[in-house]
Write a structure and sequence with these properties.
heterodimer, A: 616 residues, alpha/beta, Pyruvate-ferredoxin Oxidoreductase, domain 3, Rossmann fold, 4 domains, six-stranded mixed beta sheet, 23 strands, B: 352 residues, eight-stranded mixed beta sheet, three-stranded antiparallel beta sheet, 12 helices
């Protein structure tokens, strides 16, 4: 299997994979290495492949050092840090030919696990740590720091940068700082003395991370909710969305507690289930607060009934769906884009919902704000479809910026004064010919009172079983969805626009698609690219689809859900749309896209075979 | 049942409250329930209670789920916003609405199907969360809109209209609420408006979750011989034991109560509930005793009505626990909610 990049120069361009046991504190050692590389000005990605478990099961962490700043998973492993005996045989097999493997040489390895085409490096990590530290738990934790020290020596990572990171983490706990620094040096010094350092795969300072941060999408989205002015968050814990509410709450504790009174300018409610969580969001939004709920696929399934009510009674609400692998409980700690159809048409009856598709944490921040503006402007649920890869992994993003001139778009809410000037208020009348009615808030004026109901209602808000009256409202809701298409973010385009081949994708596929476009360009294959950022689709989407003869729809699910949505909601000729699908549960890499496109061209050999890829 | 509209003009001599409003101005649209439905009497009691409290209509928020009882929020105080949500989920709507604006008065109307079957989980958690609201259960032991199936409050041995006998034990909302530590638990009877009105007023003014289980017979599907929720059976077995008078903050207690017979309880807003005690030993602030007493009376087929338990400790009311801003969350200006660009720049240091 040849590597995509076969140049001998592998400085700042390689992949390290750490194989650990979860619950042993390996995450801090691994992120220490990642952050150190980032601080040396070299772009990195960090992907955590963890089990749905608290302690004792295999877990992996993959760092891609990428001087070109690619955001996707690489699809290969150059250095394996094999710290889990249970997965060792599998981990050995995964290393690319010519790669390296680091293992704990305290215990002997089976001869059966030899591979002639990789370099195996043994360091007696447990022995080193046991000789220098006491306590079982302490030794387990510090062994991780010790291998971080070995890696620093092998990869030529600046020790001062690591020291800086550690003193930031343990600055207030000098004993911890001392033991961690000592463990780091144990590994580092051993490597310097016994191994050939550095490896040809190494880190060299660049200046490519200035103006950037490393942040995960859930944190960024939680922060976005704070800046959007959200005051009520209701949720039920579910992987992988939990850290979004944790982040919101943490930021609120920092920014939303009145210093004079100690009063909270927010309320976070842990609901009894997702049904209640969305109910609380509707209640709060209906009552004039910006409210949201973070959840994942199973939560959306439970919320369906209320989502139909929100659509029909026109109650704004914001839902973050951090997608994970389905169906059913599925694989809660793996990523997928499997909820596109579920969210687009959530609930019984004729419903259609506004969806936003962030591609990275940076967009999670801005789209969180946008979601609230859209929900209130359009008086309807707005879904932000993130996924586990975006939500829980650290991505290198441009610095988040905030415009202090921003003010929330509260949409059409009538004040007491405006109500006083009206002859009579009717909730669902299309006064402005944009299919968006006016709403009122409780507590403002008896003249604004109306009865919100999910049962059949006419445009005056009254109960009805009259066909014509019912249809007036339902037809306006359809027109409102067309209005929504004018408000939602436009797609992002790449390429010269003159290729016959187009790629259409969404969300976290973006990194893999952009890398694939570069690979194809080097092979003299030019493609155009459209990344859809929202549903409903606007004219831009229609015209891209009509201008390209062959269109590859790249997405991370089995059933080509984005493709289905495009065929249902645009005039595109279905036979033009070819799917490139990845549903392994791991973030997508560029190979299936390159292969999928090349397979349709004459005389194009396949590049690689990667699991979870399927072309049809 | 009627589809005619109510006349808009009221007789000029109708009595007015402190806001100059007549009772008629607290009415809603015409009821579409069956003639003689207990729920309409409860609606009348709510109207009387709001009128008597001099409540500004827009200060009231009416919430409900699905079922005959849930329809009634349309039949009172048309000047208040109403939210008729989905089956069994009214408590979550109420919790969210209350979180957004703590200043308004929230009244949820539900039934025994809506609250004790499909919505049991939400009811229980609204009590646990101690949401500041009045929760009325219009309890008739049957599903009316789907034509007479037993509900979870149907007593063992009670007979359905077509003769089926219920075998499953009932869930009693009063015992349920007491066991969960609800801070205001009462039972009323739709046929006893004099008792019900002050209970509703006290429940609205109580800070915390107030539950009133109102026995409200279904004339169409559960008013026959052999039913334990019929008008006849209820009149024979309900026991107006713990009468309560509601005294608004500004008023003096004017009636002469005999020493030891009454227990005045001060509500958080300064109003008082004066409880006529059952006997020297009954203390409605003692939750365990209240539970034991109600349970014993139920075994004797006796529905004790009145204010059964009250606890004016407001420390674990939702907003007090949450330390929510006294200015309602939906009115805090955006400038106070956004940390601004400088704070963001500073925060980014954490992610480098």
């Amino acid at each position: 299997m040849p590597n995509l990049v076969s140049a001998p120069d592998r400085v700042n361009d390689f992949v390290i994979k750490f194989a650990n046991v979860n619950g042993t504190g390996s995450a801090s050692a691994n992120s220490l290495i990642m952050k150190a590389i980032f601080r040396m000005g070299v772009p990195v990605t960090g992907k955590n492949y963890f089990p749905s478990n608290i302690q004792g099961l295999p877990t992996w962490y993959e760092i891609r050092v990428t001087r070109d700043g690619y955001a996707a998973r690489a699809g290969r492993v150059d250095i394996m840090v094999a710290m889990n005996a249970e997965t060792y045989s599998k981990d050995v097999r995964e290393v690319a030919s010519g790669g390296y493997l680091l293992y704990d040489a305290t215990w002997p390895r089976s001869a059966l696990l030899q591979r002639g085409d990789i370099t195996v490096i043994g360091v007696p990590l447990a022995q080193l740590v046991n000789e220098n530290f006491d306590g079982v738990r302490n030794r387990i934790l510090l062994k991780n720091i010790a291998y971080a020290g070995v890696m620093a020596a092998l990869l030529d990572i600046d020790l001062q940068v690591i020291d800086g990171l550690m003193s930031e983490s343990y600055g207030k706990k000098p004993k911890l700082l001392e033991s961690n620094s000592r463990a780091l040096r144990l590994g580092y010094d051993y490597a310097k003395e016994h191994l050939q350092c550095p490896l040809p795969l190494r880190v060299e300072r660049l200046d490519k991370t200035r103006g950037h941060i490393m942040i995960d999408g859930n944190t960024a989205a939680g922060l976005g909710c704070v800046y959007a002015g959200a005051t009520v968050g209701a949720w039920y814990p579910i992987t992988p969305s939990t850290s979004l509410m944790d982040a919101f709450k943490g930021f609120c504790e920092r920014y939303r507690v009145d210093p004079a009174t100690g009063e909270h300018n927010y309320a976070v409610i842990q609901a009894e289930d997702e049904l209640a969580a969305i109910g609380m969001v509707l209640g709060a939004s209906w009552n004039g607060a910006r409210a949201f709920t973070p959840t994942s696929g199973p939560g959306i399934s439970l919320m369906n009934e209320f989502l139909g009510l929100a659509y029909y009674a026109e109650v704004p609400c914001v839902i973050f769906d951090v997608q994970r692998v389905g169906p059913s409980t599925g694989m809660p700690t793996r990523t997928q884009q499997g909820d596109i159809m579920l969210c687009a048409y959530a609930s019984h009856g004729d419903t259609r919902h506004v969806l936003l598709f962030p591609a990275n944490p940076e967009e999670c921040f801005y789209m969180a704000v946008k979601a609230f503006d859209l929900a209130e402007r359009l008086q309807t649920p707005v879904f932000v479809l993130s996924d586990l890869d975006i939500g829980m992994n650290d991505w290198m993003c441009k610095d988040l910026k905030w415009d202090d001139a921003y003010r929330p778009d509260r949409g059409k809410i009538l004040s007491a004064e405006e109500l006083a000037s009206l002859d009579k208020f009717y909730r669902y009348v299309d006064r402005d010919d944009d299919a968006i009615p006016y709403r009122t808030l409780p507590g403002v004026s008896p003249k604004g009172a109306y009865f919100t109901r999910g049962s059949g209602h006419n445009q005056y808000g009254a109960y009805t079983e009259d066909s014509a009256e019912y249809q007036v409202v339902l037809d306006r809701l359809k027109r409102k969805f067309s209005t929504a298409a004018r408000y939602v973010p436009k797609p992002e385009f790449a390429g010269k626009g003159d290729s016959k081949i187009g790629i259409v994708s969404v969300g976290s596929c973006d990194g893999a698609v952009r890398e694939a476009i570069d690979v194809l360009a080097r092979q003299k294959i030019a493609v155009d690219y459209m990344r859809i950022k929202a549903f409903p689709f606007g004219h831009d989407v229609e015209s891209f689809l009509s201008l390209h003869a062959t269109i590859f729809v790249v997405e991370q699910n089995r059933d080509a859900q984005l493709r289905s949505l495009l065929t249902l909601e645009t005039g595109v000729d279905k036979s033009k749309l070819k799917s490139i699908l990845s549903y392994s549960g791991f973030p997508m890499s560029c190979e299936p896209i390159v292969d999928g496109i090349r397979a349709t061209l004459p005389d194009a050999p396949r590049l690689t075979a990667v699991t979870g890829k399927h072309t049809r | 049942m009627s589809f005619i509209n109510k006349p808009k003009v009221a007789h000029p001599s109708l009595p007015t409250n402190a806001l100059g409003m007549t009772r008629r101005q607290y009415e809603g649209s015409m009821s579409t329930l069956c003639a003689g439905c207990g729920h309409d009497s409860v609606t009348a009691a709510v109207i009387e209670a709001c009128w008597g409290l001099d409540m500004r209509p827009e200060q009231l928020v009416k919430l409900s789920g699905i079922g005959c009882s849930s329809k009634t929020t349309a039949y009172f105080v048309s000047g208040a916003h109403g939210f008729n949500s989905v089956h069994g989920r009214m408590p979550s709507i109420a919790s969210g609405a209350n979180a957004a604006n703590r200043e308004l008065t929230y009244v949820g109307v539900s039934g025994d199907g809506d609250s004790l079957s499909i919505g049991l989980g939400q009811l229980v958690h609204a009590i646990r969360r101690n949401v500041n609201m009045l929760y009325l259960i219009e309890n008739n032991g049957v599903y009316g809109l789907t034509k007479g199936q037993f509900s979870a409050s149907a007593d063992i041995g009670t007979k359905a209209k077509k003769g089926e006998v219920n075998q499953s034990p009932p869930i009693d909302p009063v015992l349920l609420a007491l066991s969960l530590g609800a801070t205001f638990v009462a039972r009323g009877f739709s046929g006893d408006k004099a008792q019900l009105v002050p209970l509703i007023q006290a429940g609205m003014r109580h800070r915390g979750f107030a539950l009133i289980d109102v026995l409200s017979p279904c004339v169409t599907f559960n008013d026959h011989e052999g039913s334990t929720k019929s008008y006849t059976f209820t009149r024979e077995h309900y026991h107006a034991a713990i009468e309560a008078d509601f005294v608004p903050p500004a008023e003096e207690i004017s009636v002469d109560y005999r020493e030891g017979e009454v227990l005045p309880v001060q509500l958080h807003d300064g109003s008082r509930v004066v409880l006529h005690k059952l006997g020297a030993s009954y203390d409605p602030t003692d939750r365990s005793a209240a539970y034991a007493f109600i349970e014993q009376k139920l075994k004797q087929n006796e529905y004790v009505t009145g204010l059964i338990h009250i606890n004016e400790d407001v420390s674990h009311e939702f907003h007090n626990l949450n330390k929510t801003s006294t200015v309602p969350l939906n009115r805090i200006p955006y400038e106070k909610l956004s940390p601004g660009s400088t704070a963001l720049e500073k925060l980014l240091g954490r992610y480098r």
